[in-house]
Write a structure and sequence with these properties.
With 330 residues, the chain is an alpha/beta fold. It is built from twelve helices and twelve strands. β4 and β5 form a beta hairpin. InterPro entries: AAA+_ATPase (IPR003593), ABC_Ni/Peptide_Import (IPR050388), ABC_transporter-like_ATP-bd (IPR003439), ABC_transporter-like_CS (IPR017871), Oligopep_ABC_C (IPR013563), P-loop_NTPase (IPR027417).
Length: 330
């Protein structure tokens, strides 16, 4: 049994004009110690999926269909008390901006001790000892001193390390990291991602990494999910997706990487932009931006086609598969 299994998940937001679906028919599994990347442009539904796993969708949003099974138990049906035992304890979340995550009027130590005592019956002294150990794990120098400092006294990289340490406090089974290196410079980004992989491997913690950067996903994760307009359009082993992207959108993301451009020329880009959830095109949502447009793309939502070890939602891939099989059948 997988550690986490998401089945037919739908998330809707109730507006005056009616319900708008932010996630549609999302399915995937995550095993213990496995690292999964969620990729896509802003508005693809990555963060909504991360929040929905912990049932943190704020009104007027709600999980309108499907299941989120953690060790076989549906998180979507749990009471607030049951969820409190899961959040921060069994499943932790690391948010984009550490200055928004950390309380500016409490010291690092006060925040870490408070987190520990919310889930465990533990003394201040023991909680502080565990907090110092976790700060050491994330390679913060002089943790005995840093623990009594306020967030504004630390650099951006240090604050992000503190947030990771807080995420590891309860020895969780899963960490959901929502663009954890967005506010950092490139060299610090690489250090933080290397640290997260090392900690996950050492503690056998599963990781869901939410990002728009396929380059980071290729270095950190074992499986990848590419999302577009609230739907999974390609998923499979990361290496297979990076080396042989099947969906035109995934190919566009790959071609948009700086290293894919010819030196001295403009960077490649996908024309157009992500559609509004209130105006998702009929058929394949990517069809207005696609270079391989077919009649079926504007009329019919593509089902999933198995290509190698990947699942792809694209009429073009299905046609190519049929064309490959036709000569053999004949």
């Amino acid at each position: 049994m997988p550690l986490l299994e998401v089945r037919n998940l739908e998330v809707s937001f109730g507006l005056r004009s009616g319900d708008v679906k932010a996630l549609r028919n999302v399915n995937f599994t995550l095993d213990r110690g496995e690292r999964l990347g969620l990729v896509g442009e802003s508005g693809a539904g990555k963060s909504v999926l991360g929040f929905s796993i912990l049932n943190l969708i704020s009104k007027p949003g709600r999980i309108s269909d499907g299941q989120i099974l953690f060790e076989g138990k549906d998180l979507a049906d749990m009471s607030p008390e049951e969820l409190r035992n899961i959040r921060g304890n069994r499943i932790s979340m690391i948010f984009q901006d550490p200055m928004m995550t950390l309380n500016p009027v409490l010291t690092i130590g006060q925040q870490m001790v408070e987190c520990l005592q919310a889930h465990r019956n533990i003394s201040n002294e023991n909680a502080r000892t565990i907090a110092v150990q976790k700060l050491q794990q994330v390679q913060i120098p002089s943790p005995e001193t840093r623990i009594d400092q306020y967030p504004h006294e630390l650099s951006g990289g240090m604050r992000q390390r503190v947030v990771i340490a807080i995420g590891l406090l309860m020895d969780p089974d899963i960490i959901i990291a929502d663009e954890p290196t967005t506010a950092l410079d490139v060299t610090i980004q690489a250090e933080i991602m290397e640290l997260m992989v090392e900690l996950c491997e050492r503690n056998n913690v599963a990781l869901i990494l939410i990002t728009h950067d396929l380059g980071v996903v290729s270095q950190v994760t074992q499986k990848a999910i590419v999302m577009y307009a609230g739907r999974i359009i390609e998923q499979g082993p990361t290496r297979e997706i990076i080396n042989d992207a099947q969906h035109p959108y995934t190919q566009g993301l790959m071609n948009a990487l700086p290293q894919m451009a010819i030196p001295g020329q403009r960077l490649n880009q996908i024309r157009g932009s992500m559609p509004s959830l209130q105006k998702i095109p009929t058929g394949c949502a990517f069809n207005p931006r696609c270079d391989y447009l077919r009649d079926a793309c504007t009329k019919q939502l593509p089902g999933y086609t198995v290509s190698g070890n990947c699942k792809v939602a694209c009429h073009m891939v299905a046609e190519l598969k049929q064309a490959e099989q036709a000569p053999h059948e004949a």
